[in-house]
């Protein structure tokens, strides 16, 4: 079932990208209207998709997935975005996209398992140290709401939000476990700290008065054709949402680094809470871009991951519930638009959330990469990471900042293995 589900996700997501129905990358979705209007060719659209997504797949999604031995959804759906647009917008192209997408899904799942097995055969298995790349992400992600608040509301409110999130983390970590008779509830400090920050983000955004710009409900009236286009394709969107929920239920994928790492540790309830907090923040971003572009998010507002976690081990029920969630999202677009219209600050915070998440991930992954390299060879490891970061900025074709650290950590692991084979470095355990 695991292989069937992952291949079905790869195939359907590629088809929806090929037909311009749904894509995963929030930064890529706004480019589709230019293609629909003939201002951008298919080749140019494909090139844009590659430029936006490839670095994230290679430098962020794949290393994070390898470290946790679970697929980060970016690893799969950023690539299906590219597969879809690289195939022609014809019946043959759609079929080709489905085949390539299915094979890619198969390759990702089988390949991830093979890579983990291959690491064990290396003279120096650096998979465990590589896991430290994502370690700071769990804690740092709790601060993305504070960063988003800073972008939208200024420095002072950002400092307040960050201080409260850090204080919440400290208090929750100190409490640890709540005993309720025979039941024990383990509190996840990063997840609850992030949830605290999301609540503050919503409170600050709700306090923003109406601006002179067009409201979301006005946008749904102006872009009624785009909304109708999304709603017309609801069966396909629902099917993909159901499959993603089923894949999460089978514990083969997760939607973000924090819930991914919690899942790898078996902390399912904490992973669900982290996914829920993230989903709340993504509602305005996904719905606003959907209304304007006529292209929906491949996983909707990401609540399907929450459903998958809550129904762990029950993929059929997760599929049904996930499909129902996406269907509800699609047909409630106009309702959500009216709600967002009453709170323009919430409507406008979507882009700030995306920017904040990228900045937090960029710094956290860089620090985590230094941790990983330090665990491989003390001193030299962080030096190697810093060198890669600085030299990347001098390159004629630098990779995206968010990807530099993880790529450098993998390269350093390979270098360590070469040194071991050449006899230039003796593993501590072998001394």
Tell me about this structure.
A hairpin with a 2-residue loop joins β3 (177-180) and β4 (183-186). The protein has helices at residues 2-18, 32-36, 42-68, 73-86, 91-121, 127-130, 135-140, 144-153, 155-175, 189-206, 216-222, 224-232, 234-249, 257-264, 268-293, 303-310, 315-331, 333-342, 344-376, 380-394, 401-421; strands at residues 22-23, 71-72, 177-180, 183-186, 253-254, 296-297. The strands form 3 sheets. A two-stranded parallel ribbon has the order 1-6. It has a two-stranded parallel sheet with strand order 2-5. The N and C termini lie far apart (45 Å). The longest helix has 33 residues, at 344-376. The protein has 21 helices and 6 strands. It is globular. It has one domain (2-430). α3 runs antiparallel to α4 (73-86) and α15 packs antiparallel against α16 (303-310). The protein has 431 residues and is mainly alpha-helical.
Sum this structure up briefly.
The chain has 431 residues and is mostly helical.
Task: List strands and helices in order, with pairings.
Elements: H1 2-18, E1 22-23, H2 32-36, H3 42-68, E2 71-72, H4 73-86, H5 91-121, H6 127-130, H7 135-140, H8 144-153, H9 155-175, E3 177-180, E4 183-186, H10 189-206, H11 216-222, H12 224-232, H13 234-249, E5 253-254, H14 257-264, H15 268-293, E6 296-297, H16 303-310, H17 315-331, H18 333-342, H19 344-376, H20 380-394, H21 401-421
Parallel strand pairs: 1-6, 2-5
Antiparallel strand pairs: 3-4
Helix pairs in contact: 1-4, 1-5, 1-13, 3-4, 3-21, 4-5, 8-9, 8-10, 8-19, 9-10, 10-15, 10-19, 11-12, 11-18, 12-15, 13-16, 13-17, 14-15, 15-16, 15-18, 15-19, 16-17, 19-20, 19-21, 20-21
């Amino acid at each position: 079932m695991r292989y069937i589900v992952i291949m079905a996700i790869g195939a359907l997501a590629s088809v929806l990208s090929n037909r311009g129905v749904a894509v995963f990358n929030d930064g890529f979705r706004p480019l589709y209207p230019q293609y629909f209007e003939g201002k951008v060719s298919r080749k140019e659209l494909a090139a844009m998709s590659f430029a936006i997504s490839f670095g994230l797949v290679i430098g962020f999604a794949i290393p994070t997935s390898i470290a946790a031995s679970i697929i980060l959804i970016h690893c799969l759906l950023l690539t299906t975005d590219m597969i879809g647009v690289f195939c022609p917008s014809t019946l043959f192209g759609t079929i080709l996209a489905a085949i390539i997408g299915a094979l890619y899904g198969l390759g990702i799942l089988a390949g991830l398992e093979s890579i983990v097995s291959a690491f064990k055969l290396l003279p120096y298995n650096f998979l465990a140290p590589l896991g430290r790349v994502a370690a700071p992400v769990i804690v740092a992600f709790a601060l993305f709401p504070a960063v988003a608040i800073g972008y939208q509301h200024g420095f002072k409110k950002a400092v307040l939000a960050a201080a409260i999130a850090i204080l919440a983390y400290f208090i929750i970590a100190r409490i640890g476990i709540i005993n309720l008779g025979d039941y024990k509830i383990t509190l996840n400090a990063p997840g609850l700290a992030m949830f605290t920050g999301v609540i503050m983000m919503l409170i600050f955004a709700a306090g923003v008065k109406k601006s002179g710009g067009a409201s979301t409900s006005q946008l749904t009236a102006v872009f009624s054709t785009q909304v109708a286009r999304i709603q017309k394709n609801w069966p396909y969107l629902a099917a993909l949402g159901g499959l993603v929920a089923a894949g999460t239920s089978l514990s083969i994928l997760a939607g973000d680094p924090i819930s991914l790492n919690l899942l790898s540790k078996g902390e399912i309830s904490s992973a669900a809470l982290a996914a829920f907090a993230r989903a709340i923040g993504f509602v305005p971003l996904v719905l606003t871009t959907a209304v304007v572009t006529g292209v929906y998010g491949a996983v909707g507002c990401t609540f399907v991951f929450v459903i998958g976690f809550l129904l762990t081990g029950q993929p059929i029920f997760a599929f049904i519930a996930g499909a129902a969630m996406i269907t509800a999202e699609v047909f409630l677009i106009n309702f959500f638009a009216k709600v967002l219209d009453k709170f323009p600050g919430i409507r406008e915070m979507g882009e700030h959330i995306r920017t904040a998440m990228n900045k937090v991930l960029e710094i956290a992954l860089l620090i985590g990469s230094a941790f990983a390299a330090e665990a491989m060879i003390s001193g030299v490891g962080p030096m190697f990471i810093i060198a890669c970061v600085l030299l990347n900025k001098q390159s004629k074709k630098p990779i995206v900042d968010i990807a530099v650290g993880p790529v450098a950590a993998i390269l350093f692991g390979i270098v360590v293995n070469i040194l071991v084979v050449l006899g230039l470095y003796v593993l501590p355990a072998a001394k």
